[in-house]
Design brief:
binds uracil, 6 strands, six-stranded mixed β-sheet, globular, alpha/beta, single chain
């Protein structure tokens, strides 16, 4: 699923990929966005988080997870002993869906090569899918997040841990505990030496 798309092959690093796609208008979201939200963090991150798509604050600032849900994500990252700068954070779609609706399948299809190319360049050891949109689209499944979370799913050899979206946790604080259980598995996987190491 994370095949590099031939069109994006010439972009050997994230900065040139960003420059190449930041004016994208391949789907309707490109016409209504304020800013393109490429993603942010360590280009060599071992851990990469993937959310659904930019919200209002992200659309205004051009950065992922900077609103209320983003502040909770920062706390989650700190709770696992890391900093935001140590990880990479991106979204399934790079432009804000109006009124924060979930992205349409057609929008996800057009944007997928961008995320796929990012994952190929970063080569994270572990991916963490935040919420249903991210989990379903990364895994290519329609299963509810409640059934996907808590276990690793392997995509092109990369372990993907789906967990609840921080915006959902803000509305359902009792779900923070299961999210923490999921993240403990992420920490363990990050510590485990790879087979070839
Ligand atoms: N929610 C997301 O899924 N992504 C963001 O970047 C912000 C909020």
């Amino acid at each position: 699923r994370f095949q590099t798309v031939p069109d994006l092959q010439p972009y050997g690093d994230l900065a040139s990929l960003h420059a190449a796609i930041q004016d994208c208008v391949k789907c309707p979201l490109g016409k209504t966005r304020t800013k393109f939200v490429f993603g942010a963090g360590d280009v060599h991150a071992k851990l990469m988080f993937v959310g659904e798509g930019p919200g209002r604050d992200e659309d205004l600032q051009g950065l992922p997870f900077v609103g209320r849900a983003g502040q909770l994500l920062t706390k989650i990252i700190e709770a696992i002993g890391m900093k935001r700068e140590d990880v990479y954070i991106a979204n399934i779609v790079k432009c804000r869906p109006p009124n924060n609706r979930p992205p349409e399948p057609e929008e996800v299809r057009e944007c997928w090569p961008h995320l796929s190319a990012q994952i190929n360049l970063i080569k994270p050891k572990v991916l963490c899918a935040l919420g249903s949109s991210a989990a379903r689209n990364l895994l290519g499944l329609e299963t509810p997040i409640s059934a996907l979370r808590g276990k690793f799913h392997y995509v092109d050899g990369i372990p993907v841990m789906p967990t609840y979206h921080p915006a959902f946790l803000l509305r359902n604080p009792n779900m923070k505990k299961p999210c923490w259980e999921d993240l403990k598995k992420v920490i363990a996987a990050l510590k485990k030496p790879a087979a070839s190491e």
